[in-house]
Amino acid sequence: MRCRKCGKKAVVSLRAYRISLCGDCYVDFYRKLVERSIKKYRILGKDERILLAVSGGKDSSAMVSVLKELGFDFEILHIDLGIGEYSKDSRRKVENLSEMLSVNLNIVELEDYGFTIPQVRGRVCSACGTAKRYIMNRFARERGFDVVATGHTAEDLASFYLKNIAGGQQVFAEKLIPRIEPFDAKVVAKARPLFEISERENMLYALIKGLPFKSGECPYAPRPEWKEIVYDIELKKPGFTRNFVRGLVGKAENPLETRYCSICGEISSGEVCSFCKIRMKFTRSSKGF
Ligand code: SF4
Ligand code: ZN
User: Fold this and answer.
1) Which domain holds residue 272?
2) Is 31 within 8 Å of 62 (Cβ atoms)?
């Protein structure tokens, strides 16, 4: 199998694009895919102060590297969740990545807010998601960033949508678009520059570029059943996932009413925000912070 672009030996075959490429041409191809997506959906601007939320996994590592290649100026934020060896290794990978690419790294430890993820009882991933969203937004706003970007992939968005629809849940369309503008002064814009890129495409890019990334799963990760369904459809219908998420763009609506948490003052859907409710279980404190 030969590279479609240069004729060298191909190392990558992309069924969704019906193309085989060598390593160098793949990196070029991937960079152009991300660039086109950012321009078409106005996901990030070169004049913005950008904060990249980086977990240490392949997707966020790929995001950091490709945005650097595309000439964006940014800093990165890693949240240490305190999940034993998993968090230590993730943090090391992010430190290596920031050194390798010479980007400014900020680390926030969840423990500084009074708890770590292993102390949470019950719906661990839900609490973890709440904590990450809260810290990302607050950190970005307090330090004057215009936008926080995350490494969500096409599979993340498609599986979230299918899972909620299948469960009869209202799908919050604003969670499924590549760029969410702030609806309040306390909210920083959110961006997903990899929203139409697949996990495999990120993985291939990260491997070819030799980027540091953490490969093991978080010990709390549930079985990704809805993602497996998305992978199955993609296998039978190459290109499905990308087309599906493109179809979701443009459905966003902002919440009707903006309220503020009576404890910390951040945006909230009720009297006390979800993050403060979690914190209160550990700190027994209702003081602001
Ligand atoms: Fe947090 Fe781990 Fe759940 Fe991901 S899988 S949301 S890192 S607890
Ligand atoms: Zn609060």
Assistant:
1) 258-289
2) no
Per-residue burial over 64-86, b = 16 or more CB atoms within 10 Å of its CB, e = otherwise: bbbbebeebebbbbbbbbbbeeb
Same domain, 121 and 213: yes
Say if residue 270 is in the same domain as residue 230: no
Number of structural domains the chain divides into: 2
Are 118 and 174 in the same domain?
Answer: yes
> Could you tell me if 131 and 231 lie in one domain?
yes
Assess whether the C-beta atom of 53 lies below 6 angstroms from ligand 1. Answer: no
Residue 129 Cβ < 6 Å to ligand 1: yes
In a shared domain, residues 198 and 281: no
Secondary structure (DSSP) of 127-142: HHHHHHHHHHHHHHHH
C-alpha of residue 251 to centroid of ligand 2, in Å: 28
Nearest to 220 by CA among 136, 121, 91, 88: 121
221 lines ligand 1 (CB under 6 A): yes
- The CA distance from 204 to 58, in Å, is 9
Provide the residue-wise pLDDT of the chain in tens; the chain has 289 residues. 899 999 999 999 999 999 999 999 999 999 999 999 999 999 999 999 999 999 999 999 999 999 999 999 999 999 999 999 999 999 999 999 999 999 999 999 999 999 999 999 989 999 999 999 999 999 999 999 999 999 999 999 999 989 888 888 776 666 788 999 998 999 999 999 999 999 999 999 999 999 999 998 999 999 999 999 999 999 999 999 999 999 888 655 444 567 899 999 999 988 999 999 999 988 765 455 5
